[in-house]
Amino acid sequence: MKIAVLALQGGVSEHINHLKSLGCEAVEVRKAEELDGLDGLILPGGESTTVGKLLKETGILEKLRKKILNGFPVWGTCAGMILLAKKIENDESRHLQTMDITVRRNAYGGQINSFLVEQKIEQICSEPIPLVFIRAPYITKVESNVQIICKINNNIVAARQGNMLATSFHPELTNNLEMHKYFLNMCRENFSDLYELS
């Protein structure tokens, strides 16, 4: 499979390394035309306002939005979650607006409030995995078509809506590959569905 990481800003290389270790063809996307021929895309952590502006300037935003709405698998980590959200509580900006979630930016505070927890996530794996939170958002509201995957202290930190996955935490900053495996399975499911339709 060919999986890309949006490479406008943020933690790109860590995701690329995880994808390669799972046998993927992992590429970086910086232009709208580079979205063609992909099986999935990761929106990495970074600064959501900056990435949102760059998405518009590069022409990626509208093309990517259409692809997502047509079923293209996408996973937003941290800032990527904010990019996907239809509503952002403490920010007037809106970006891709494809996922029926409301997100609170920097919900855990600044860099000094970063933390690590070990948590078992039923849909992902049978053992606890490390979850790294850095200036992380969390989801404050989901619509009925959104599946909540993980909560920490009653805050929603991972959710899925069909072809869209969003996590507050940074799996790429640990050696654990379970979240990346889960996303690759989402991409395979989508490929199978498209193959059946063709």
UniProtKB/TrEMBL annotation:
Which reaction is the catalytic activity of this chain?
A: aldehydo-D-ribose 5-phosphate + D-glyceraldehyde 3-phosphate + L-glutamine = pyridoxal 5'-phosphate + L-glutamate + phosphate + 3 H2O + H(+); L-glutamine + H2O = L-glutamate + NH4(+)
Q: Where does L-glutamine bind?
A: 46-48, 105, 134-135
Q: Enumerate the InterPro entries for this protein.
A: Class_I_gatase-like, PdxT/SNO, PdxT/SNO_CS
Domain of life, per UniProt, equals Bacteria
Gene3D superfamilies in the record: 3.40.50.880
UniProt pathway: Cofactor biosynthesis; pyridoxal 5'-phosphate biosynthesis
Q: Which residues form the active site?
A: 78, 170, 172
Question: What keywords are annotated for this sequence in UniProt?
Answer: Glutamine amidotransferase, Hydrolase, Lyase, Pyridoxal phosphate
Pfam families from the xrefs?
SNO (PF01174)
EC number(s) per entry:
4.3.3.6, 3.5.1.2
Function according to Swiss-Prot or TrEMBL: Catalyzes the hydrolysis of glutamine to glutamate and ammonia as part of the biosynthesis of pyridoxal 5'-phosphate. The resulting ammonia molecule is channeled to the active site of PdxS.
* NCBIfam families per the UniProt record, alphabetical: PLP_synth_Pdx2
Question: How does this polypeptide assemble, per the annotation?
Answer: In the presence of PdxS, forms a dodecamer of heterodimers. Only shows activity in the heterodimer.
Q: Which family does it belong to?
A: Belongs to the glutaminase PdxT/SNO family.
- Protein known as: Pyridoxal 5'-phosphate synthase subunit PdxT
Q: What is the lineage of its organism?
A: Bacteria, Bacillati, Bacillota, Clostridia, Eubacteriales
Name the gene that codes for it: pdxT
